[in-house]
DNA sequence: TTTCAGGGTCTCGATTTTGT
DNA sequence: ACAAAATCGAGACCCTGAAA
């Protein structure tokens, strides 16, 4: 309870005016506590406060004050109704006097929020398969005909496809005989009259070896069965012309055979020659193949050596790159470390005022008379000490430029740095040390109605102690800030205080701007 | 005595954690 | 992934001390 809070009761006019405004916003009567309702009620109360304070005849009131008045009014109304009920139930009392309430009736009906959530049906889903099927059907031609297999086949079958094949045609009778072999008597066979291949078989067998019958289809002119030519005379036949002709024919036949024999020998010799040449060509080809294989082998060996050399070169390059990267990384690491050390030195340099973070800690150390061990990456690099009563161990959660710290409580006295580094921080005995001044516990009292408050559990008591200690610490911080004054806050780059009717308005800002307190051990 | 305001418990909804 | 349990936050309601 704030002792310095000025209690100015609401006048009757203020009460009526406030109740009128509350009546205009039935949402404040809604008992629902969901997010939307809470926000709506908050907005309604803000509007009520704005309207109330806009009246120049009234003293400005906060939302908390207005809401508290409303709660108290409701409690009084409820209490009065209870007394009225007891009067009605009780016997021996006087006439019933209805309770004259100073409060207007308000609508207790909660706003019907059964509004329809916008739902718009966007129709049946489109069946793509059907659409695709229709698309297939639409491919049919407008006249109804389709490209069915039957139509296509009909078209193919009815087409006049010319063919060049002559297989169905009968064999031509004009095929000439390529060769006819055989020994015929010199007076019978005529080389100038070729005969079909089938003709010899059709001819009758010869009656005499020396005089075979001539072919029936093409009889030689000399043995024609026809009557004698007009130039032949029976005299010639009788005087031995025929034997001479036969002999001459035999002589010519022998010459022909001789010529054929010579030709055969020539061809045989030519074949032998060709064979030798082929053998030579084969030898040359084999030689060329061997040379080609040797060339390829040399080429493969060369390329293999080249690839190995290339691989060795690449390995060397890779090794050099790795070495260079390693050296660069080490150099950059050294550079970063130097920058870090320089930054730390700069932070620790008292003359540098740009290091707001560090100086805020210095200011906090002076403000709160605590010891601040400032850690970065688990390394202690700064300590703000002023013979303190407590140690507050701060560690950056982000970069040095960050302004967020976590504070861990260490009990009692200053401990050495090594102990802090091990993070084996003993837990604070909060129950015995804090809060030393505040009223920690809640003592149940016997109520007039005979009921008792629920007995506090251990968890509830721990929660009470925790909250009490947090308040105690915040009170210390606030007292320190207030004792410093605005000039001191300005000197240490801390936010200025703003006041309104003896109330420090930005006390929360002052607490939260620089320090986020985390308590351990509870 | 009345009224304001601090502080307690309880309830409810939302969110997070935990177990299956 | 889901459900149950735990936790958190805000408000409602109530009690009580202190000041006017």
From TrEMBL:
Region (Disordered) residue ranges read 182-246, 436-456
Query: Keywords on this record?
Result: Coiled coil, Transcription, Transcription regulation
Pfam families on file: Myb_DNA-bind_5
Q: Specify residue ranges for compositional bias: Basic residues.
A: 444-454
Question: Is the keyword Ribonucleoprotein assigned to this protein?
Answer: no
Tell me, what does this protein do in biology? Involved in transvection phenomena (= synapsis-dependent gene expression), where the synaptic pairing of chromosomes carrying genes with which zeste interacts influences the expression of these genes. Zeste binds to DNA and stimulates transcription from a nearby promoter.
Q: What is this protein called?
A: Regulatory protein zeste
Q: Which organism is it from?
A: Timema shepardi (Walking stick)
